[in-house]
Design brief:
Radius of gyration: 15 Å
Shape: globular
Distance between the termini: 36 Å
Mean pLDDT: 85
Number of strands: 6
Largest sheet: 4 strands, antiparallel
Strand content: 15-25%
Low-confidence stretches: 128-134
Strand order of the largest sheet: 1-6-2-5
Structural class: alpha+beta
Order of helices and strands: EHEEEEHHEHH
Number of helices: 5
Length: 134
């Protein structure tokens, strides 16, 4: 699933390898600058209303490293990490669109195909049991 013909995602890397230790020339690293990322469970598939997918979250930002760190520090990151070991991959958006426009299209396509947002994002949007809307 690609956001546009001009945006291609790279290889999957274990999330912990991206986050651990000082960078070395042979270690995976998020790209510099604007981008989009995907997080998926390392093994297996998750049930969605209309099928199964390994995807748990998408993110984007003008600084893709900061966007990944921000997502992981919040409720979406908490939910994602509870789903199991994760893999991550990145794409640099085409110059005719912003990372957030690509992110919106990825969410729209995922919802159209699977019937909900990716699991960690859907869980983060659900109000806690017993909570009432203001």
């Amino acid at each position: 699933m690609v956001a546009s013909a001009a945006m291609q995602f790279g290889a999957w890397f274990p999330l912990e390898a991206l986050l651990s230790g000082p960078p070395s020339p042979d270690a995976p690293a998020p790209p510099d600058g604007p981008g989009v990322f995907q997080l998926r469970v390392e093994k297996g598939l998750l049930r969605y209303p209309r099928g199964q997918s390994a995807m748990v979250a998408y993110g984007a930002g003008s600084d893709v490293r900061a966007a990944l760190a921000e997502l992981l520090a919040g409720p979406v990151g908490d939910h994602a990490r509870r789903l199991g070991p994760l893999l991550c991959r990145f794409a640099v958006p085409d110059p005719h669109s912003t990372p957030h426009e690509h992110l919106r299209r990825l969410h729209e396509r995922f919802q159209a195909q699977f019937g909900s947002l990716p699991m960690a994002q859907a869980l983060a949007e659900d109000p806690p049991a017993g909570a009432t809307e203001p």
